[in-house]
Design a protein that fits this description.
The structure is a single chain. The chain is about 50% helix and about 15% strand. The protein is α/β, with parallel strands linked by helices and about 350 residues long. The protein folds into 2 domains: about 80 residues; about 260 residues, 3-Layer(aba) Sandwich (Rossmann fold). A 9-stranded mixed sheet has the order 2-1-3-5-4-6-7-8-9, with helices on both faces. α2 packs antiparallel against α3, α4 runs antiparallel to α6 and α8 packs across α13. The longest helix is centred in the first third of the chain and has 30 residues. The termini are far apart.
Length: about 350
């Protein structure tokens, strides 16, 4: 028995040494990222917890106190966020179609921390090219700072999205009220792209509809952003039904990347429901012409949705399309937000 115990201890210590470098690399990656206050406390708690685990593994009995200290700090931050984070009158996070309050899972981690750490990680694993990564972290940080100035603490759908909990009967939706808080009959539905629904891009789009005092609603369909499948269409229709219940009579649909592809493909089925389309960094070349007015925003350096394809899509719509090229890549909403907001606002005021 004693020999088996010694072998088990040696195996655990060997595994701890194998895991040490990846854990240190992760800590460094997170530490060099601009974190929120809760993110910094989570990081400290994780470091203390990790030190405790390694200490116990290597036979330092008092390390259990260090472990519990780290775990206590992590749990305290999580509980504090759940109790402190509540939707304001301006930026809400609802679960549709039942219109219930958001799940506690969406309150645990600040979206800024998750997004910015991911933005550092994705180029390292090849999901984002060096060109796309250039300036993206700074642009996203600026976006989160601007949103924080508007509302300091907001929920995010990303947690339930990555746990695969979004479905047509129970999906997270970001709802952003117009500035004047007055009743409105106009709304814009924003369909997210690949990687899932996040509050900050929704907030960026909400700034573009300020001139027409519209409600902005951003539903979730899962991390793939596959709005063209039956579940995606049903989610969009459920969102439209929700808006009708709120007294909304004029609805625009906007989409980003895969969301724009889905919007372009579904538009012909919704001609009696929506007033127009706004497609950012995406469109389907096979989409049926809906006859609706369409604003197409495309980046000349887009590696994922080539400018030639976007231009061809706009050309086949004839005078129903307004085509605008920006000297930008696929992530132009984050990097060129002010320009895009201005273009959208001008188009909406004409349509």
């Amino acid at each position: 028995m004693a020999a088996n115990r010694r072998i088990s201890i040696l195996i655990l210590r060997g595994l701890s040494l194998i895991l040490l470098l990846p854990i240190i690399a992760l800590i460094i990656l997170v530490a060099i990222t601009p974190l929120t206050v809760s993110g910094m406390f989570y990081l400290v708690g994780f470091i203390v917890f990790t030190v405790g685990v390694f200490g116990i593994t290597w036979g330092y009995r008092r390390s259990r106190y260090v472990l519990w200290l780290g775990l206590t700090l992590i749990v305290t931050v999580a509980v504090a966020r759940i109790f402190l984070l509540r939707s304001s009158d301006k930026i809400k996070l609802l679960i549709l179609p039942e219109q219930s309050a958001t799940c506690w899972l969406n309150c645990l981690i600040d979206e800024q921390d998750a997004s910015l750490v991911s933005t550092r990680l994705l180029p390292l694993i090849g999901w984002i090219s060096p060109t796309e990564a250039d300036g993206l972290l700074d642009a996203m940080y600026a976006g989160y700072q601007s949103m924080a100035a508007d509302q300091s603490l907001v929920g995010s759908p990303f947690a339930r999205t990555y746990l695969n909990l979004q479905n047509v009967y129970d999906f997270d939706t970001v709802v952003i009220e117009p500035d004047n808080h007055q009743p409105t009959a106009t709304a814009l539905i924003f369909l997210h792209g690949f990687i899932g629904n996040f509050t900050m891009p929704c907030w960026l789009i909400a700034q573009a509809v300020r001139p027409i005092h519209a409600l902005t609603v951003c539903p979730s369909v899962g991390w793939r952003g596959d709005w063209w499948i039956p579940n995606g269409e049903a989610t969009l229709r459920a969102t439209i039904d929700y808006l009708h219940q709120q007294g909304i009579s004029r609805i625009y649909v906007a989409g980003l990347s895969n969301g724009a592809v889905g919007a372009s493909e579904l538009a012909y089925k919704l001609t009696n429901e929506i007033a127009g389309l706004i497609l950012i960094s995406g469109a389907s070349p096979d989409a049926i012409n809906s006859g609706l007015p369409v604003l197409v925003l495309a980046g000349t350096e887009d590696e994922r949705m080539p400018i030639a394809m976007m231009r061809a899509y706009a050309n086949q719509l004839g005078d129903k399309a307004t085509f605008i090229e920006l000297n930008a890549d696929h992530f132009m909403l984050a990097k060129h937000d002010k320009e895009i907001q201005s273009d959208i606002a001008a188009w909406l005021q004409k349509h």
